[in-house]
Amino acid sequence: MPFVRNPDSFYGPDAAIVRGELTPQDCHAIEEAGLHHVVIGSTSDISNLSRIRGLTKLDVQAVDPVDLGPVSGLVELRHLSVGGNWHGEISLALLVDLEVFGGDVKRPRASVTGVLPGSKLRFAQGNFDEKLLTALSRSASLQTLAVHDTRIKDLGWLEDAAPIRALSFTKCSVLADLGGLRHVPGLKFLKFERCRKLGRLDTIEPLASLELLQLDDCGEIESLDPLRHCGALRLVTLNGDTRVQDGRISVLAPRAETLSVRFVDRPTYDRAAATFGFDEAYFASAYAAYMN
Known about the structure:
This protein is mostly beta strands. Among the domains are: 1-89, no CATH class; 185-292, Alpha-Beta Horseshoe (Leucine-rich repeat, LRR (right-handed beta-alpha superhelix)). It is 10% helix and 28% strand. It has helices at residues 24-32, 130-137, 280-290; strands at residues 15-18, 37-40, 57-67, 79-87, 89-92, 97-101, 109-112, 119-124, 142-148, 166-170, 189-193, 212-216, 220-221, 235-238, 243-244, 260-263. The strands form three sheets. A twelve-stranded parallel sheet has the order 1-2-3-4-6-8-9-10-11-12-14-16, with helices on one face. It has a two-stranded parallel ribbon with strand order 5-7. It has a two-stranded parallel sheet with strand order 13-15. The longest helix has 11 residues, at 280-290. The relative contact order is 0.07.
């Protein structure tokens, strides 16, 4: 059997799950079955993929090194998820959702042009060349960019970025210089989780459109004072081991009627901290809009 369809699988009943070599015959059978979602398992050769007309969603979970170059021939592809050991250049004109997990990604190159509105790019567990992030951040309609578990030190690659509305950084353990945020003045959603080198928030001060800021498990933060100038800010979280060094949560007190703050109370914090509520409905709606 060239491929399997498993209604109980993670990928759902309409995915063609390919194990082993992907032959031209397989591609023809997938197209004849009217399937638009292909899951690649153990093969290291995907050169025949472009034979499948109408393919819009592709998952590649590579055990052996796989060259992703042929993916660029999938002119209708909208959703791409890549894991495992991969390399090569990706160039996709209509990509909406790119998710990257794992792999030895030391010198990748990418160009993504004409991306559809509402695009989301997510990177995880890779030693990414900043040229890749620079190229992707310039995609004209990019709205959400999430970077996980990478060794980026600064955000300078956001220069000339598209009008990104949401940025998320998780386990970026050496990220310290946030000066590049000045290149995305229209940012509305900003999340840092387990990024413990941040220290100061001065570079967040100019983000006049910022509505939601998460600083969860980010260790020592010098002061919240720069946030007083973020006039659109509606919600701040300081969860986990995030600790405000000067203890002055009260600098946000004048905004208590419109600003939600969730934090782990500490003996060193001033008492004004107790005056803040938390808007769960807005928090859920913001996540739905930017991160789902």
